[in-house]
Design goal:
heterodimer, A: 812 residues, alpha+beta, Alpha-Beta Plaits, Calcium-transporting ATPase, cytoplasmic transduction domain A, seven-stranded mixed β-sheet, six-stranded antiparallel β-sheet, 18% strand, elongated, B: 58 residues
């Protein structure tokens, strides 16, 4: 233990991004950097007197290791006037305004630096961050700086804007809830004043209020109530109407019915001087309902739940024609064209490798972190990312016809999950409406014998007090609060309905790679003759010179800081690396590569690319053994599977081969529950099959290959290591770090459903009390004014408090 | 009667002014980002930051 503690202290962290420095060579004065990229950013900021960036937060920068270089023709498509006009939001020749999404924004240093862009270039007039949406709004002078220059400038300091194919095709419009704020403002203003004007009626002893006052107050109340009903409550009328058009009664119908009756009866009473009306109750009810809507409408602006391949693919690609390189929009790509893909660039269409050494990282597509080597003539599917030197490809299918993108042509993607789902509140609302209408008619018939007037009074009174405000408030407050609690636990649901849908699931389907296994992390073990410290030093020195991800993993796995000088180094793509160090010849790679005898016993199951692959080591032509790399399952997986086993069916769908079968059955029990070699369509169809059998399915996945299954399932949850990064279209995004809380989250949603049902019971009790009073026509405005807010407040307090208590008990 | 009517008229007028102020605030985008301003206000204005072109670089 002590030794590793010392090691930790000796390790230096990058001054710019805070990552571990693998070498001490990159530094300026005392400040050390993990890579030259980080150092360059520091130099740019230092030159421009912007080093305060480092004072506000410690190591606030973005690691430059994995980013593609901004230089060259990468952004040349931004010189195209057509692309520019689609990106900018305003232009008058002197001032141009553009809005960029920058996922890297994460701290106050980011805000400080990005709002000081004018210091980096005089062409930039002003820049303003919206932290919540992670966007940067830039005003610039197009005569002094081009859009391309701005993007290159941002990329050079580590804040590369996310410009995707989707932004160009149809600009994503930020859905603002301004209109809800307006509606609440109007409702609050009118409700407050109506309340004030209604007090004399309630407080003055009967008969003491002057008739002229009564008339004036009544008239003012009517004027104030009209905008609340016709403007603030308009969405409820629309929703009830659209429900009726689809021949179904939703919860908005009895609300609208109650509101309409309230207003008509009040209008009649005030104009005929027969009473004061119920306008305070009506406006109060609308005000509370809108507040519930605001509370429920908690959204995670910076997260995108609707992403498909289009928001992931690049806007442009470099095309080579007659040895001339040009950047064209991806959509214009046709088959037969030659494209150049540089380090860290994405392959937008299925293509054949024509020139260069392919080393393709499919992590976004499959979740698999290790790159796959490809040689000339092999087909490379769209969605992969080239790691290493530039390659030349010949396009064989257009973007929309590619293997991966074809998935989106399925009709699963045109359906919305909300359409398929009927919320419990609407089911209750339907029966509630029928019963209330029945009682109201009964009251009318009962009193009809006495007089028509009394009958109408009783009829309207029933509808007024039975207005299901408590029921209508239950869902927004219970689910809205649950949404917040889940958000605190880094489970970001798209909307409140997702919470309710989770509570109904009975089957959970997992993807394997990247979902239940940890991405970018593997268990490295050395099998064979135990290496002495000198040999360890040699291996560490060898792998340090290779950029292959496996090499850097082995580098990290070997302890010690000593390194030896290398006299000779060679890397053979797809085979391995070799070097001469201190007179020793060291080879690391596939079995055939390290030993000159190809038929070794060890070579039987060698594959350099598979996750459970073996990397052989030979020193001076003696095979010392091999490094084995195994998946690491997420912490807490065992706990999750054992606690969910009794209540849910759990199935694993893996795109990989069955190498991990043994390990998985340990967690998931029966063999049939684990399926291997599943293509994206297979996953989608498997979920569909389960649903046909009547199961409610939750799919948990991470890559683009799970997109179909995520969309088809009743609840699609995308697991992500970094929630601002790409994740496919889904209903909820779940931070991988909190994976072990999955079972608690599911049981919490089930408890939330119980809270909702209990709350319905409470509000129905209130309604029963009101209806029994109303049936005898003895309903005064004062009674309504007390009963309605009382039931609303009880319901709100009950739902919010109980969900909070439950979450605390469950440790969320 | 008339005094109270005038008072009520003015009280509604004052309330309406607040409503107008609220609508203006929403319209001007103050409710769209409720986080950034809280951070931005804590940054000190550095002297050279006022004149943006004193130290221009190409």
């Amino acid at each position: 233990m002590q030794i590793s503690d010392i090691n930790l202290r000796e390790r230096t962290l990058c001054y710019h991004c805070g990552e571990l420095c693998t070498s001490e060579d990159i530094k300026i004065g005392e400040k050390k950097f993990c890579c030259t990229g980080c150092k360059t950013v520091y130099e740019i900021l230092h030159e421009n007197n912007l080093c305060k960036y480092y004072d506000l937060e410690e190591a606030p920068g973005i690691s430059q290791k994995k980013l593609a270089s901004a230089a060259g023709t990468r952004y040349s498509y931004l010189d195209d006037p057509k692309v520019i006009s689609q990106l900018i939001s305003f232009n008058d020749g002197k001032i141009t305004v553009v809005n960029f999404a920058i996922p890297a924004i994460h701290c106050s240093s980011c805000i400080w630096l990005l709002e000081k862009l004018y210091k980096l270039h005089e062409g930039i007039i002003q820049s303003e961050i919206n932290f919540v949406q992670k966007t940067l709004n830039i005003k610039y002078n197009p005569q002094k700086i081009t859009l391309r220059k701005i993007v290159e400038l941002l990329a050079s300091i580590g804040y590369e804007p996310q410009i995707s194919f989707d932004d160009i095709e149809n600009k994503v419009k930020y859905q603002s809830n301004k209109s809800l704020y307006y509606k609440i403002g109007v409702a609050a203003f009118c409700f407050g004043n109506i309340m004030l004007l209604s007090f004399p009626e309630y407080l003055a002893p009967i008969g003491t209020l002057e008739h002229s006052y009564k008339q004036l107050f009544g008239l003012l109340n009517l004027i104030l109530a009209a905008p609340v009903l016709f403007y603030s409550a308009s969405s409820y009328f629309k929703s009830a109407w659209s429900g009726l058009k689809q021949k179904s009664i939703n919860i908005d119908f009895p609300i609208v019915l109650g509101l309409a009756v309230l207003f008509i009866r009040s209008f009649y009473e005030i104009t005929t001087n027969s009473g004061a009306g119920f306008l305070d109750s009506m406006t109060g009810l609308i005000f509370f309902l809108l507040l519930g809507k605001l509370f429920q409408g908690k959204t995670y602006d910076a997260l995108n739940f609707e992403r498909n391949y289009k928001s992931y693919f690049p806007v442009s690609v470099t095309v080579k024609k007659d040895s001339e390189e040009n950047s064209i929009p991806v959509t214009n790509l046709v088959t037969g064209e030659r494209i150049i893909i540089r380090n860290n660039e994405l392959i937008p269409a299925d293509a054949i490798l024509f020139n260069g050494n392919g080393n393709i990282d499919y992590s976004f597509v499959t979740g698999e972190a290790l790159p796959v080597p490809k040689v000339q003539g092999e087909i490379i599917y769209a969605g992969g990312r080239q790691i290493g030197s530039a390659i030349e490809l010949e396009v064989i299918r257009t973007v929309s016809q590619s293997y991966l993108t074809k998935l989106w042509n399925k009709d699963t993607f045109t359906k919305s999950n909300e359409d398929k789902f009927n919320s419990i509140v609407n089911v209750v609302g339907k029966y509630f409406t029928i019963i209330i209408l029945f009682i109201a008619v009964l009251a009318f018939v009962y009193w009809y014998a006495e007089s028509v007037r009394t009958a109408i009074n009783a009829f309207t009174a029933v509808l007024i007090v039975a207005c299901p405000c408590g029921i209508a408030l239950t869902n927004p407050f219970a689910l809205g609060n649950a949404l917040r609690i889940l958000g605190r636990n880094k489970f970001y649901a798209k909307n409140a309905s997702v919470v309710e849908r989770i509570s109904k699931i009975d089957t959970i389907v997992f993807d394997k790679t990247g979902t239940i296994t940890q991405t970018g992390d593997a268990d490295i073990k050395f099998n064979g003759t135990v290496l002495n410290s000198n040999e360890q030093k040699l291996v560490k020195s060898l792998v340090r010179n290779s950029t292959h991800p496996l090499s850097s993993r082995i580098y990290e796995a070997i302890e010690g800081n000593e390194l030896a000088d290398i006299t000779y180094f060679n890397e053979l793509s797809g085979k391995g690396i070799e070097a001469e160090i201190e007179g020793n010849r060291i080879k690391l790679g596939s079995a055939g590569f390290v030993s000159d005898i190809p038929e070794t016993n060890l070579a039987n199951d060698v594959n350099f690319t598979k996750p459970d692959s073996r990397i052989f080591l030979s020193i001076n032509n003696t095979i010392k053994g091999f490094f084995s790399i195994n998946n690491i399952y997420r912490t807490g997986l065992e706990n999750i599977t054992s606690s969910l086993k009794n209540d849910f069916d759990m199935i694993v769908l893996s795109g990989d081969n069955d190498g991990e079968r043994e390990n998985l059955t340990k967690y998931f029990g029966l063999e049939g529950r684990v399926k291997f070699n599943q293509k994206p369509e297979d996953k989608l169809e498997f979920i569909e099959e389960l649903q046909v059998q009547g199961h409610k399915v939750m799919m948990i996945g991470d890559g683009l290959n799970d997109s179909g299954a995520l969309k088809q399932s009743d609840v699609g949850v995308a697991i992500s290591e970094d929630i601002t990064n790409f994740s496919p279209a889904c209903d909820a995004i779940f931070d991988a770090g909190n994976f072990s809380k999955l079972n608690t989250i599911i049981s919490f949603t089930k408890s939330t459903k119980m809270v909702i049902i209990l709350s319905f019971c409470i509000s129905i009790l209130y309604n029963l009390l009101g209806v029994s009073l109303a049936f005898s026509t003895e309903i005064s405005p004062l009674l309504a004014a007390i009963l309605m807010p009382a039931s609303s407040i009880t319901v709100v307090l009950f739902t919010v408090l109980s969900t909070n208590i439950i979450s605390r008990k469950k440790g969320l | 009667m008339s005094v109270i009517a005038i008072l009520i008229f003015f009280s509604v007028l004052v309330a309406a002014a607040f409503l107008a102020a609220f609508i203006w605030a929403v319209k001007s985008g103050q409710y769209e980002d409720r986080y950034t301003p809280s951070v931005r206000i804590l940054f000190d204005d550095d002297a050279e930051g006022i004149n943006k072109n004193t130290e221009k670089k190409d």
